[in-house]
Structure formats: structure tokens, C-alpha cells
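Journal club prep — side note

Before the paper discussion, L.F. wants everyone to see what a predicted structure for a comparable chain looks like in C-alpha cell form. Sequence:
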Amino acid sequence: NLGSIVVVWRIGLLFDRRTGYAAATIAAADFTALFFALNYDLPDVAVGFFTALSVLFLVKFLRRAQSVRTLVYSALFLGLAMWTKETVYLLWVPVVGFLVIWMRWGADLAWTVVLKRLGVFVCIVMLFFGGWKLRNYVVLGASAFNTRSATPMSDNAASLVAYQRGITINAAHELLRKGLAPEVWSMDEGAFNRTLVRHYAATIMAS
């Protein structure tokens, strides 16, 4: 959280000192950050920090250093944010759209320059996105990007277990549910999902 506040302050300084202090004050006044910091199962603190760093370099690119290196840093931290929480993985789409508009009509850059810089940004982001999908395909047997929730984890785990043991998908689902304790089904949704994912992962490792 302190890191995010410092990064927000640096973003504000790119405009002027008063904006920097105002932005840092608003960020520090967000008391929901304490809730996320005290819940280690939630990745929101890390995703907020990496996203803020990505925005810092993006704003720096727009206002000061219009260099490929700055875009590279922005893409790298956006990729880390994607790996931290799956809901960030589509953030690159509006960023790319905004960059096209700004570089072509705001900065009046030639299309060749615009496409080269966008190509670098998109390629780096796709390495993170595609790399994670490849990892899920190898480990789980399905390339879904999101494997944190129970439903996609259940489907992917069943596919992998069915392939490993030479059984049907339905039989694999029954096998995965066999070791669950009765009290699991009465848990709240968050605890249920986390327990289910850990159980499926343990079953796959045992296979």
C-alpha cells in the first residue's frame, strides 16, 4: 500500500507538485486498502501496485519521455498485474486504443512510428498473457486464462485427470469430488472456491 501511494504521488508530480500531493493524500485516505492488506488470500494490494507502476510509465511516456523504453516498462508492469489478478488481463485493450489515438492525432506521429511502438507494447503484454495460457494448458490440460475460481479449475482439472488416467470426464469429476469433506459444501463462496482449488490441485499432483 505504501508503494502504491508513492507511485501515485510520482504520477501526480508529472503534472505539478500540488497534484502529486493531492493524489497521494487521496490514495492514503483509501481505508479499503487496509482490508485488502489484512487478507492475504486477496491479491488486490499487489495488483494495485503493479497497475499503478504501469500507469506511471504510461503517463511519463505521454507527458515527457516518448521513448520505447518507457512503453516497455509500462507493458512489463501491466503484465505483472495480469499475472497477479486475472481481471486485469483485458486492460491492455483500452490502453492500446488510447495510445493509437494519442500518438497518431495527439503527438502527430507517422503511422510507421505508431505501429512500431504499439507492436513492442502489445508483444510484451502478449508474452505474459500467452505464457500464462500455455502454462495452464501444460499443467491443467486447458488454456483458460483464469484458473483461480472453482468452476474453470474444476473443468480443467477433470480434463487433465481424465487424460492422465484414461477415464471419462464424468468419472474424473466424481474422482475429484470424492475426497471433499461434507462441511466444505456449507462454506461461503470464497472459502469454498479456495478449498476446491487446493483439493483439485492436490488430486492432480497425486495423479
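L.F.'s comment for the group: The chain has a mean pLDDT of 79. Keep this in mind when we get to the figures.
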